[in-house]
């Protein structure tokens, strides 16, 4: 399975609780699309969130976010892990 990093930009009113809740919703939906969300990072001050997942495609990763909470990423990038 491929590894993807997605980027959500300028999320107004971003809080730790909101990010935690959205991630939990992703975990509840991910299996339906064959996706596994692994980690996330965020900057509360500028409203940026990064999500790391394993997925069969960009579209599958996007579908999880869309169904779970509607916060679709601005960009999804396929990445490879370094050594």
Any overview of this molecule?
This protein has a single domain, classed as ORF SCO4226, nickel-binding ferredoxin-like monomer (Alpha-Beta Plaits). The chain has two helices and four strands. It has helices at residues 16-29, 58-68; strands spanning 2-8, 36-43, 48-55, 75-79. The longest helix has 14 residues, at 16-29. It starts with a strand and ends with a strand.
Give average pLDDT, whole number.
Answer: 96
CATH level 3 topology: Alpha-Beta Plaits
DSSP summary: helix tally: 2
What is the architecture at the second tier of CATH? 2-Layer Sandwich
Radius of gyration: 12 Å
Secondary-structure blueprint of this entry?
Blueprint: E1 2-8, H1 16-29, E2 36-43, E3 48-55, H2 58-68, E4 75-79
Antiparallel strand pairs: 1-3, 1-4, 2-3
Q: Can you tag this structure with a few keywords?
A:
single chain, 83 residues, alpha+beta, Alpha-Beta Plaits, 4-stranded antiparallel sheet, 2 helices, globular
Give the gist of this structure.
The chain has helices at residues 16-29, 58-68, and strands at 2-8, 36-43, 48-55, 75-79. With 83 residues, the protein is of the alpha+beta class.
């Amino acid at each position: 399975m491929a590894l993807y990093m997605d980027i959500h930009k300028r999320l107004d009113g971003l809080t730790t609780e909101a990010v935690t809740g959205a991630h939990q919703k992703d975990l509840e939906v991910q299996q339906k699309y064959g996706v596994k969300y692994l980690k996330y990072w965020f900057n509360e001050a500028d409203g940026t969130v990064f999500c790391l997942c394993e997925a069969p495609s960009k579209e599958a990763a996007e579908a999880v976010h869309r169904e779970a909470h509607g916060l679709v990423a601005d960009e999804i990038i396929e990445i490879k892990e370094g050594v």
